[in-house]
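Late entry, uridine-5'-diphosphate complex.
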Amino acid sequence: SPAARTPPPPSPLRFSKFFQSNMRILITGGAGFIGSHLVDKLMENEKNEVIVADNYFTGSKDNLKKWIGHPRFELVRHDVTEPLLIEVDQIYHLACPASPIFYKYNPVKTTKTNVIGTLNMLGLAKRVGARILLTSTSEVYGDPLVHPQDESYWGNVNPIGVRSCYDEGKRVAETLMFDYHRQHGIEIRIARIFNTYGPRMNIDDGRVVSNFIAQAIRGLVYFYSTYAILSSIELFSYAIHLCSGESLTVQAPGTQTRSFCYVSDMVYGLIRLMEGDNTGPINIGNPGEFTMLELAETVKELINPEVEIAMVENTPDDPRQRKPVITKANELLGWEPKVKLRDGLPLMEEDFRLRLGVARKK
Ligand code: NAD
Ligand code: UDP
Ligand code: UDP
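Prediction complete; structure with ligand written out below:
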């Protein structure tokens, strides 16, 4: 787009150039899934001071417990729909529930978070001369009529549906980012994130990978406890049938596709984008595309071959296909994902087992 080709305007003097040599970084939504992994990575650099602002709607202090009390780290309970007055050099603006069940829970609040929250962070960026990165989403492409999706596609989004608070909210957030850039010379970065998974996702998050892994592991608990009680080889298959616990809930038709990116790859991509010269929007995601039935089969094979797959009703406006074109990320940021789904799922399984208190068999 022409805007993306415009060279960035001269940046105001950075806050840290006046006061200190450290880079002071704000992460809104830093107590959430992606945010907390981003905190871990940024804290590895001793020149970074990290401030997290989060209202704990879907995030938790637990995700950040290893940093609480660290001299270069600060955690603030703050809702981004309220103004925030602090001094920082960079803002990673992630605050927004990402799982459909949570963003639909209070859709008006979701729109406020996307619109007023992003406006406030842009106002802050303008006042202190900070560079700001927005975590937008592949949902801006809606139920895409173009496949796979590159950044030039304008999307096919229902403006009045139950997902609109999220996808139209993010579209306005992108609009605000570009208008602050053109009108006020703010340094902006926009990432369009595709489905991301990994350790620390909420167990009851409701997104497909966390659901399937929790369901596969819980399936094992019921199965083994019942088997121990029956303790009889004749009843073995009966026990499997009756007591294998939860099924993997594939929402119909199961042929819809998603492309899943492991969280360490995502965090690396976000940092590359922030540190690079390109405003974006840039897709960040893993182009490996799977149907939900294929995902269920893979989870079954890797985690619990006994678990059953059940077809359940879907929700409205579910996008039928989604796969990123990542040529821009590759050429402009030198980024590509490294972790394949089959390698990432077991890493997530380990974390879920610890939190669910279910040991691996044998
Ligand atoms: P998450 O729900 O785990 O994290 C969101 C964080 O934002 C939580 O800690 C939550 O408490 C906080 N938050 C929500 N509303 C807030 C508010 N009004 N004020 C302050 N904090 C608030 O989700 P995530 O998966 O880590 O997603 C992070 C970002 O990435 C979101 O902006 C999301 O839209 C975007 N994204 C994620 C995915 C994905 O697959 N995970 C895909 C596309 C885009
Ligand atoms: N804002 C903020 N922190 C700041 C500066 C601004 O939260 O350090 C908020 C401010 O409350 C306002 C929004 O950001 O609602 C947009 O600010 P801007 O200065 O761009 O617009 P104005 O205040 O003129 O409406
Ligand atoms: N899905 C599913 N079973 C679940 C949860 C989700 O089959 O238990 C499907 C859902 O219908 C969608 C896909 O998985 O087609 C991805 O859904 P998710 O909520 O993870 O993310 P998003 O729709 O935002 O991409």
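The first strand starts at residue 23 and ends at 28. Will revisit in the morning.
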